[in-house]
Amino acid sequence: MEKQHFSVARIVTHTKEDISKFERHDERKNTTYSNTNIVVERTPMNIYFKKYDSTLNQKFDELVKKGQISTRGLKANAKIYNELVFDVNSLYFEQNGGYEFAKRFYEKAYNFAEKEMGTENILTAVLHADELNSALTEEFGKEIYHYHLHVIAIPVVQKEIKYSKRCKDKSLVGKTKEVINQVSHSKKWKSEQAKDLQGNPLYDEKGKPILIKSYSLLQDRFFNYMFDNGYRGFVRGIKGSTAEHLENLDYKIKKDKERLKEISSKIEEKETTLVNIMKFDKQIKGVSDLGKHKRFSKKIELEPQDYEDLVNYAKKGIIADKEIYERDTKIENLRNTLNKWIEKYDGLVEKTKDYFHAIKLAPQRVADFFKSLFDKEKQDELERQRIEQEKLEAERKVREEAREKERLERQKLKNSPEYKKRRASYER
Questions:
Q1: How many helices (H) and strands (E) does the chain have?
Q2: Which of 44, 51, 269, 326 yields a CA-CA distance of 20 to 30 A from 290?
Q3: What share of the chain is helix, strand, coil (3-state, %, to 5)?
Q4: Rounded CA gap, 176 and 164, in Å?
Q5: pLDDT tens across 174-191, in order?
Q6: Which residues contact 218 (CB under 8 A, 6 or more apart)?
């Protein structure tokens, strides 16, 4: 069965203290990356839809100073940045035209981000086209890239500031003093109460409002926006799904084990070579001892063979010194590389230990769990689409009824004596 593609729209929050790390990653300002799938030769292919020369914190402070945004009510370490990440399965782009298709797709996705956040509140927006999808590359035998969009914006809501009771002019108390663009993640992304097709609020059996998380609504809006703009072939992302990530993670762990084995083999090879080189030590010592035996004058006399051996040993010693230095350097570099891979491998093992432990203990139960989860989400998606279709149909009927009512009103007006009298007077 053909693999189904899913759209994803998620939000990562940042503070002023931690934003620089993510800024360097998104803007490709680092010299090295923990993500080994980044192909630096392709980094120039990344597309910027918006970019500032200064840092994000400098731009934020500039907007505050100009009064375009307000930090009123914010705590010291508040979440003042929203990083919106838009994504669809890598294979979706590969099947539809690759890089050129991805550019058009994410330009439209950026337009959606502008609609959601306000163009003036977006600081940076970049399409990453330089990250290799290792699993798909291995599967298809050609390079396949993971195209996705990072948008960093400031969550802003309009807030009315009213005159307080302390105001000297009592006639102004409770009236609007000013409207500010307040920075607030919590207010920007409040959950909304669910409604039926008629727009009435929904409640559970206990009378509590049924709430829909704002991030889930963002997913809905992104999917609908791209669908309305002609992009098809995918469905709304499954809530909480990590299937593709786990697939890639499993692949990375496998490859890391292979690399560790390869590096260990190289180190053993270099150490063996070094041992062989050090065998020359005895010969070198023999050279050093030449002429230290009993002698009768300041001059040292050597047999022709000893002299020839001395010259050869000297040459070999110089070459050996050079080779030892080079191999010492290579071994040190290899050891450093090995340690880095060990750290990465240990980190991957730690992150996935619960998942793989569960697979080991009850593989069928885990498989059944994910299958049931995905099946339920698919059913939920179908139900959502059905409800949406019913809503559209209801809206269409309302519009038709309104048009029919308007037509009847016009016809009634034309048949009225007043209308006929006015019409007759105009004709005279």
A1: 12, 10
A2: 326
A3: 60, 15, 25
A4: 10
A5: 888 888 899 999 899 988
A6: 9, 11, 116, 189
In angstroms and rounded to an integer, the radius of gyration of the C-alpha atoms of the chain is: 36
Pairing mode, if any, of strands 6-14 and 235-236? parallel
pTM: 0.56
Domain ranges of the chain: 6-240, 249-361, 365-427
Residue spans of alpha helices (H) in 229-299? 243-278, 280-289
Q: Is the pLDDT of residue 155 over 80?
A: yes
Kind and range of the H or E run holding 392: helix 363-415
* Residue/partner pairs of 184-189 with CB below 8 Å, 24 or more apart: 184/73, 184/74, 184/155, 184/156, 184/157, 184/159, 185/13, 185/78, 185/79, 185/80, 185/82, 185/155, 187/155, 187/157, 187/159, 188/82, 188/155, 188/156, 188/157, 189/11, 189/155, 189/214, 189/215, 189/218
Structure tokens at 33: 């990356």
Q: Would you state the pLDDT for residue 362?
A: 75
Q: What is the mean pLDDT of residues 392-403?
A: 83
User: Mean pLDDT over residues 233-262, rounded?
Assistant: 58
First to last CA, the chain: 76
pLDDT (mean) for 101-127: 95
Burial 230-242 (b: 16+ CB within 10 A, else e): ebeebbbbbeeee
Report how far Cα 342 is from the mean position of its chain's Cα atoms. Answer: 24
**H or E stretch including 413?**
helix 363-415
Could you give the angle at the alpha carbon of 233 between the alpha carbons of 228 and 236, nearest 5°?
70
| Model confidence pLDDT, tens digit, residues 201-210 | 888 888 888 8
pLDDT confidence bin for 300, thresholds 50/70/90: low
The architecture (CATH level 2) of 6-240 comes to 2-Layer Sandwich (3.30)
- Cβ atoms < 10 Å from Cβ of 298: 5
Contacts of 93 (CB under 8 A, 6+ apart): 99, 101, 102, 105, 145, 147
